[in-house]
Structure formats: C-alpha cells, structure tokens
Write a structure and sequence with these properties.
The complex is a heterodimer of chains A (about 170) and B (about 210). Chain A has about 170 residues and is of the alpha/beta class. Chain A contains five helices and seven strands, in the order E-E-H-H-E-H-E-E-E-H-E-H. Chain A is about 25% helix and about 25% strand. Chain B contains seven helices and six strands. A six-stranded parallel β-sheet of chain B has the order 2-1-3-4-5-6, sandwiched between helices. The chains are: A alpha/beta (about 170), B alpha/beta (about 210).
C-alpha cells in the first residue's frame, strides 16, 4: 500500500524511490490559482472545481499515511506552485466550523488523515523565516487535522535529496 | 501628500473583502493622498513592478489561504523580490490579511510572511492588520454595529500609514458573538448547497 504522497518543487526523477511506498504528485508547471469560489465545498464537495489534474491532490490525501512537502523556503512559507496546489486542496476539510484549542477552525471531512512533513530548502535561509515555517506547519497541521508533523531545513537541494535517499 | 499603491491580493475579480477593505482604508486615509490600485490575477511581474514606481507606500490587502498568502499574490511577490529595490527602494509596505475564521490573530503568520518579503526585497516594513470573520464585512458599514471594533483598528492602522509609522501588528474581529458567527456561517453553507442542487449530506462527501 502506498503510504506517502509527495508534493514537491524539485526534480525527483533521479531518485529511485519505492513506487509501492511513494506517490510523487506531478503538478502543472504553473498551477492555476484558487479563485476563492468555495466550489470545493458547495459544488463538488471534496474537490476543486477547476478541471485539471492539480485538483487531484485533495482526493489523494485521505488515502495515504503521510504527506511530504518538498519546497523552497519562501518568506517563511512554501513556494508559489506548491502553495497553489494546497490552496486548491481545502476541499480536504469541511466548510463547517469547530473549535480547536479555543480557536475557530474547519471540521474534518475524513476520519483518517495523513501526518505532515515539510522538507524546506534554500541558501542562507534567514532564521526568522525558519521560525515562521515552524509555526506554519503547526498551523497547517491543526487545520488539516494531522496528528503528527515535522519540518526539516536543508541548505541545498542536494542535501535534501541525500536525506530522502536514506 | 503621499502616493499610495493598494494591492488587491484577492483572486476574485469582484465583490472581494480585499476590495471592500481597500475602499474603506482609502476613505480613512483621506483626500490628501494620491491612490492607485493593482490586482494580482492575470498581472505579469513587469506590470506589478511598474505599479511601485514613485509610490511612498504600498498596502497589500489579501485573504488568508491555508495559513498564508494566496498563490496568485505569492507568485508576484516571489518573482519581484530581487527587482523591487531597483524600482523603488524607499517604499514602505503595509499589509491587511482577512480570514474566514473568527479570530484576527489567525492572520499572524501571513503578515509575518509579508514582513519576510520586505526583508528579502530590502524595503521597509510598516505594519500588518489581521482581520477575523471577513465574511461579516458586508453586514454593516465598517465602524458601525458589529464592525465598530474593526473600524476603530482600521482607523489606527490608517493613521500609522499617514504618518509612515512602523509598529507591531494589530489584530481585530467583529464585536459580535463567536457562536452566532459560526451558526450564520453554517446556515450560509447549507443555503449555497441547496442553490447548487445539492443536499446537505452531499457536503460531507468522502472521495
């Protein structure tokens, strides 16, 4: 059974990843942005209404144990193309609200939800941006209902790929 | 007199909370400034950068998407970060993020990301304003009824822009019961479902 769904902004084709374990999500070169229509909640619940394969990420998420996001660290967050996929994946959760730790969040659509792992890379990543990224994954995990989450930083994609091989 | 650029970070072409907030903010900033606006959907990096020419202040107004900046705006900021300083190194950037949750504080990370953009681009960061319950912005005039608190904080924020003051971020939400906001939201989702020919249970579909 496939256990890990990988969203990435680097070329992983050189890696010999176990196909039974990993699904490498191949998004478009320039993912169409979410248009804020809420169609993924009230027209085609659970899936973005834009008819292209970038809408599939949200549908794959409930069927894996872990989501790994490999991204350049951009302003303490994810890179634009990776973020565009996530923006279009909020159908993974429900529109309805609930309270988590005293704050308002969305209810979960699925009982089984993947853990989150962010592998972020960049040259000379500012410490302040790393701090923001650590807070970001915690916030994303709360909103996506992930029980476990972790973030790793890499000074180069080569270093990141080396870690992924292990 | 200042030249102020308002950047609409919403991907929606009309009726966005960002547009409404820009209009209210410009009213508060007063008639002594000169205003220009730009959208961020279907805009090239070059067109975006040109908007910064000669402005004193840029205010980025956007909805919170997945705890961060919506991708349409993020892409433009990312592509512009190395060149902005050549176009305008003196611009001061302010930001307003609004979210559909109740608490304004949930915009904190997205505002920090705009601050990090300023640090990466080498321009001055002014202040951020995080607004909660953005879906309520049309229920009353800003500054009246349940939007009195948001109006007061937007006023403080606009005064800081007029004085070019850099300060800690402000967070605000309607002076309205959280429970009623939640129930109103739920009623709206159910109404939308029916309008789209769906049953309420369809909203819970699992794929």
């Amino acid at each position: 059974m496939v256990k890990t769904l990988v969203l990435q902004d680097i070329n992983l084709s050189g890696l010999d990843l176990d196909k039974d374990k990993y699904i490498i999500f191949k998004q478009s070169q320039s993912v169409k942005p979410c248009v804020g229509c809420f169609g993924c909640w009230v027209k085609t619940p659970g899936k973005c209404v834009i008819k292209d394969s970038d809408s599939d990420f949200a549908v794959k998420m409930p069927h894996v144990e872990e989501v790994i996001i490999i991204s350049e660290l951009v302003f303490g967050g994810l890179s634009p193309n990776v973020k565009a996929v996530l923006d279009r994946s909020i159908g993974f959760i429900l529109p309805f609200f609930c309270k988590v730790n005293g704050e308002m969040h969305h209810k979960q659509r699925y009982d089984k939800r993947p853990n989150l792992k962010y592998m972020l890379y960049g040259e000379k990543m500012p410490e302040a941006e790393k701090v923001t990224a650590q807070k970001l994954i915690k916030a994303n995990a709360t909103n996506l209902g992930a029980d476990k989450f972790s973030v790793e930083f890499y000074n180069s994609t080569a270093e990141l790929l080396e870690d992924l091989k292990q | 007199m200042m030249k102020i650029l308002c950047i609409n970070g919403s991907p929606k072409s009309k009726n966005s909370s960002s547009e409404l907030l820009i209009n209210e903010l410009c009213k508060m900033l007063g008639i002594n400034n000169e205003y220009t606006t730009t959208k961020t959907m279907g805009v090239t990096k070059q067109e975006f950068l040109e908007k910064f020419e000669g402005v004193d202040v840029a205010v980025v107004v956007f909805p919170l998407y997945v705890d961060g900046i919506p991708s349409n705006l993020l892409r433009l900021l990312y592509e512009s970060k190395d060149e902005l300083k050549n176009i305008n190194s003196d611009v001061v950037i302010y930001a307003i993020s609004n979210n559909g949750f109740f608490e304004g504080k949930q915009n904190a990370l997205a505002l920090d990301m705009i601050k990090h953009f300023c640090e990466a681009a080498g321009v001055k960061w002014g202040q951020g304003l995080g607004i909660g319950a953005g879906g309520m912005l049309t229920v009353a005039p800003i500054g009246a009824g349940p939007l009195k608190s948001i109006g007061a904080d937007l006023k403080t924020f606009s005064a800081n822009i007029n004085e070019s003051i850099s300060s800690d971020n402000l967070f605000t939400q309607p002076n309205f019961p959280k429970l009623l906001y939640k129930l109103g939201g739920h009623a709206n989702w159910k109404k939308s479902a029916k309008e789209n020919g769906l049953k309420i249970k369809d909203l819970y579909e699992r794929r």
